[in-house]
Design brief:
Layout: H1 14-23, H2 25-51, H3 55-68, H4 73-84, H5 88-101, H6 106-130, H7 133-143, H8 149-179, E1 184-185, H9 188-229, H10 233-271, E2 280-286, E3 291-297
Antiparallel strand pairs: 1-2, 2-3
Helix pairs in contact: 2-3, 3-4, 4-5, 4-6, 5-6, 6-7, 6-8, 7-8, 8-10, 9-10
Keywords: Signal
Protein name: Tetratricopeptide repeat protein
Signal peptide: 1-30
Length: 299
């Protein structure tokens, strides 16, 4: 790891600050020099820990050095140490701080990008396992601009898992909402007409979801091209929004359309029976791994 140390920088913030500096110039310079020298000493100690493979000690000592004198490159050094310790949460924080400092070189930004790319996948996976869908989405959004070809494949798999989890979560809410009360009792010809209408709506929805999915794939391919070109920011934002909508919309539309189709067919079958003595109640059901209809018959 390359260590970079820059000379002391001072700034003047108005006449009052300038006057205060002039009144205590000698002591201020001495204190500043002492702080800088302490930072160099601690940084050298941290480097020794790092070279010896003592990553936890290196990370803590880089933090001490930064407290002594806030040299932004120390944030990068601690970031790398934390990353090698697999402390992705802290590594991401340090990457953000270092990037915001404005002191990062082009090579530094490559290291920052690598941390964003890898750690976003690690943290998103953890949040998905914990059921924290909003947090997982945040990590994926932060990391996605930094993914390369290999990490992009893993990222898309996590996006798919997130979409599925979100659809399952929304499906459970729908089941709770509609499962408690019947849609209605099935009766003669009117029931058959309603069933066919519901089936038609479901089929149209399935077709629409398929068309939407194909369109989103085209948008995603274009998004990759625009991101690599790095020129048309407006088009990039437009494509990101389109792909994001598809991630939630397509699975949800598929699930609801499947419910409508299955429910409509069940409705038609039940209403076509000649015997109507037993009251039949139909309730659509959508859950984590199922979509269809629940039929209850009272004899």
């Amino acid at each position: 790891m390359v260590m970079r140390h820059k000379g002391t920088k001072r700034g003047v913030f108005g006449m009052l600050s300038a006057a205060l500096v002039m009144l205590s110039a000698s002591s201020a310079f001495a204190q500043q020099d002492d702080a800088y020298q302490e930072m160099l000493r601690l940084s050298a100690r941290a480097q020794a820990h790092y070279d010896a493979g003592e990553l936890a000690e290196a990370a803590e000592t880089y933090r001490e050095a930064y407290r002594a004198y806030p040299q932004p490159v120390l944030l990068k050094n601690e970031m790398i140490s934390r990353y090698l310790l697999e402390d992705c949460a802290r590594s991401m924080e340090l990457a953000s701080e270092f990037e915001a400092s404005g002191e990062a070189t082009a090579d530094d930004l490559k290291d920052v990008s690598a941390v964003y790319a890898d750690c976003s996948l690690v943290l998103a996976g953890r949040e998905l396992e914990a059921g924290e869908l909003d947090a997982a989405r945040t990590h994926l959004e932060v990391g996605e601009p930094h993914w390369q070809e290999d990490s992009a494949a893993e990222g898309q798999a996590l996006w798919a898992r997130l979409a599925q989890a979100r659809a399952e979560e929304e499906g459970e809410d729908v089941a709770l909402a509609v499962g408690a009360s019947p849609v209605g009792a099935v009766d003669g010809g009117g029931g058959a007409i309603g069933g066919w209408a519901l089936t038609s709506v479901g089929v149209v929805g399935l077709v629409g979801a398929s068309v939407w999915y194909l369109g989103s794939r085209s948008d995603f391919d274009e998004l990759e091209e625009v991101a690599q070109a790095g020129r048309d920011r407006a088009r990039y934002d437009e494509l990101v929004a389109s792909v994001e909508r598809a991630r939630w919309g397509v699975p949800t539309l598929y699930a609801l359309s499947a419910v409508a189709t299955a429910g409509g067919i069940a409705w038609v079958v039940l209403s076509s029976r000649e015997e109507q003595e037993a009251p039949v109640v139909f309730s659509p059901v959508i859950g984590a791994q199922q979509a269809g209809a629940q039929v209850r018959v009272r004899f």
